[in-house]
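2024-03-11 09:14:02 INFO queue: dequeued item Major facilitator superfamily domain-containing protein, len=490
2024-03-11 09:14:02 INFO validating residues
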Amino acid sequence: MVSNPPSLEKEKVSYEEDTRHTSVDHEEHIADVTEAEQQRVLRKMDIHLLPFISLLYLLSFLDRANIGNARIAGMGVDAHLDGLKYNIVAAVFFIPYALAEVPSNVCLKLFRPSRWIPSIMVAWGVVMTLMCLCKTFNSLIIARVFLGLTEAGLFPGITFYLSLWYRRRDVAKRIAIFFSAATIAGAFGGLLAYGIERMEGLGGLHGWQWIFCLEGIVTVLAAVGAFFYMYDYPETASFLTDRERHVVTTMLKEDSQGLATHYNIKFVWQAMTDYKSYVQVGIYIGLLIPVYAIALFTPTIVRELGYSAANAQLLTVPPFVAGCICTIAVGIFSDKLNLRGPFVIGGAFVSLIGYIVLYTQSAPGVAYVGAILAAVGVYPTIAVDLAWAGSAAGGDIRKGVAIAMVIGIGNLGGICSSFIYITPPRFHIGHGTIMGWLSLSILLSLFAMWDYNRLNKKKIAQCVREGIDSSRREEFKEMGNDSPLFRYTI
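2024-03-11 09:14:37 INFO prediction written
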């Protein structure tokens, strides 16, 4: 045991220096990869990857959340969604959505991403388009179940996909950029619904049916394009030169610390039996319930503040725009500082203040400010937390399963989001429930930061004591984040 803290610190510095030198020897070409070259390649990947996957996620979030816009556009009346029927229609989406995420991420690794992701997009785009034919409670239930099943693979798939292209320290900003598409979808969804409602009666369809039809068709068209435009892995990307591929693979090898990239069922079980996976699930579910509540019920909440249905559609735009800006800004700073927990805690706290305002204030203007704070606070935390969850799992399969578990189980929170906004006009039950979930995320994030720091110190002490450095990485290749060479991001 190392009992003297100053001595441990000196040994720690010495160990880290030895590790850096050994790492250079281990990868023969690392020394000739400069920081400027790395940044140039990262920017090139950003240009070729991020706009397109952001578009895909925008369409995904738009298709799952547009039911909120359709409701106030007349769906609730035409389909006779009285009582809790709308809540049930909103909720059933999340059951198959949650159950299909882990298998989908395994399939993404087994098959090519450029085939798997476009295929599931075509499937949910067809379902979305056909929802325009659903005029009853039962038919909407069936459509939402199939929408959840077919959409399940996109969000965890793209999150995992990005982790195969970017280092852990670079990925939060990229997840933030593509997740910001969700906030754009919220804003754009309101504007789009406002315009599409004017098609009332055209072709014998109501305005809310046209919302489903047109947005579904756009998704199918984008999916067809994805078959031709989407890239699989850095090693095979046609937009990278041989030198640039070498730079990317070198960066990823350093970041992975030599951990396994191949498929083995034991890596799935490693992720599923790791308590840290479930800590991250708890953090994520406490953040996602507010996100879905904002997406599903902001139009209703704004309307209950006293605004007309048309104005409510338009007034849903500012909270989402503000959330989009903050999501990207927080992702950038989180990567720059290589910190996750403090940004999750800070965002959840801001959102908590927003919900306190919504809970306590009845004046429309003040309550509307609370709605903006709620969105501004919680939206940035999702991207940072997913980057955090991914960085806490070592090896491709273990990481993919852990991310899918966090997103999959976390999405069961959507069921909760669907049933808590039942007491208009103040929605005390809904706002109060979300305040509790945000508080849980804050507490679990504090625990995770403490636990990861404890484990890092333990691993460093083990490496110093046993003389472990990166030259022995092959010994620990299949241990994932249990490897003594693995370090957690705080």
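2024-03-11 09:14:37 INFO annotate: The radius of gyration is 23 Å.
2024-03-11 09:14:38 INFO item closed
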